[in-house]
Amino acid sequence: MPTEQTTKAYRGMERPAIDAAYNNSAAVKDSPEHLEDWRRRSDETRARPTARLDLPYGPKANNRIDFFPTATPGAPLFVFIHGGYWHRNTKEIFAFVADGATAKGVNVATVGYTLAPDAGLTEIVAEISQSIDVLIDSAADLGFDAASVVVGGWSAGGHLAALTADHPGVSGVFSISGIFDLTPIALSYINDALDLTPEEVAGLSPLFNLPNRKIPHRLFVGGGELPELQRQSTVYAEALNRQGIPAALETVPGLNHFTIVNELAAEGGSLLSGLLRLVDQVASKPAP
User: Fold this and answer.
1) How far is the C-alpha of 284 from the C-alpha of 288, rounded, in Å?
2) CB 180 within 8 A of CB 234
3) For the stretch 11-43, what's the b/e string if a residue is b when 16 or more beta carbons lie within 10 angstroms of its beta carbon?
4) Do the strands 107-111 and 64-68 form a parallel or antiparallel pair, or are they unpaired?
5) DSSP 167
6) Is the overall model pTM greater than 0.85, yes or no?
7) CATH, range 15-282
8) What would the pLDDT profile of 86-134 be if each residue is shown by its tens digit?
């Protein structure tokens, strides 16, 4: 359970310091250029003739999935959840992450979800679980191995991916620069959109709710990221391992909160290599 949540400070930081410690966009001055590059590349990925776009999993506008098949029938599936501190961005911007994995024999699905403040975090987490239910139910139609499903995400998506570890259809978790303790988020500018309750901080922080299933986790964070982002991944990996849950953390030198995502799409990228190792580890092995 959280022990440091107060209305004033977290780890000795007051609100302005907490804001700065979690403001990735301010820390990476060219972040708008990265987002624009991702949009351009993703438009090309979504234009593939094999792509199956906007598959519905629920009634709301963002309850949609884009599916990018690999050439091999019955291959594993990587589910990617986008970031944006739960209130920004859409799945359409992140289709490019499928480029690396599909070229290496892994299907990719990118998942949309209702953004805050139109949905609270409890609802967003429920939507992600529902999207996985629908994907697994659709495995025969989409042509992937329902017993080999890795769920991953970046930033806020890394948080949402971590919370899927107890879903019976998930075989592995792949988190990039994730948030695992919501305590500082509730004390920061990010909470202006989220409006987290104390119950959500306690119940939806992966650090305070370690999974019961001992499926493998791979965590990545950039060596050039904000110290708090690096610390969150370190603390979470250590907690998983203490619980007997296999978790490997890699800090990639020189990469910031945005450049690290490119490593998932790039041929020979460190994150793509890590994903492929995790997929090989879980492929066709029933999750506990």
Assistant:
1) 12
2) no
3) eebeeebbbebbbbeebbeebeebbeebeebbe
4) antiparallel
5) S
6) yes
7) 3.40.50.1820
8) 999 999 999 999 999 999 999 999 999 999 999 999 999 999 999 999 9
